[in-house]
# Entry
Amino acid sequence: MAKRGKRLNRSRGGDIVMFCILAFFACFMALPMIFAIGSSFKPWSELFTFPPTLLPRRWTLNNYIDLFQVMSSSWVPFTRYFFNTVFITVIGTAGHIIVSSLCAYPLALYRFPGSKFMLAVVRLALMFNPTVLAIPTYFILSSMKLVDTYWAILFPAFGGALGLYLMSSFMGQIPTSIVEAARIDGAGHWRVFRTIVMPQVKSAWLTLIIFQVQALWNMGVGSTNTGNVVYSEQLKTITAVLQNITQGGIARQGIGAAITVLMLSVPIAVFIITQSNIIETMATSGLKD
# Structure
């Protein structure tokens, strides 16, 4: 008779206590989100009450209506800002995953002169803040005649060091015997990469999607990318426009609360869809056969 899996030495009472502790911390971590959503439905007078309330006493949609009216009065259509944001987020994320995976494949699974040095450079690049790289990035893009174009944002997004480091770390955990067996059977590099390597590191590139979507979706006028290399109003993202709206002072605090909810919705939705892969990534990071 097969042995059953090892059971944790914990009583039912211990399970209940652990559940209550986790539920308490889960509710505590959800408070900022609940407060942000509640504030977006508060009338203007309740936004400045002290002490602040978690939920509005009188629910209203005026903040969202005012936001729609403000954006409708812009000389650039709202659909243009929305297209810019979606285009940059989708293309930037897809390009980052593809470039990082293709570059990580030879670095992680093959040894060639300079491979260790390249990996060391990638790890060193993680130490630099994007603000430090703003001026060199501008000069490079300016010499390529890409300033004030979509490519001024997409090219830096394609070459992020985090994606290359994450993908190379996980690809390095794949047993080389699997790759060698596929090569002996006649599979080319592209087939090995597409059918063996990428499915094995699914948790890594799904986690990377979350990070990249969050970074590109929330890219506003204050970021080192759009703030330095994009000037045209037709190329700005939703975040950049909404940040300008919130600078209208106290009168637009209600609109600012609605903006916060709208900007949080997409990253949270992406995280909810792929949250199980983050747990898998954290559980398997650092392990090697």
Notes: The first helix runs from residue 12 to 40. DSSP finds 13 helices and no strands in the chain. The chain has two domains: 13-60, 73-284.
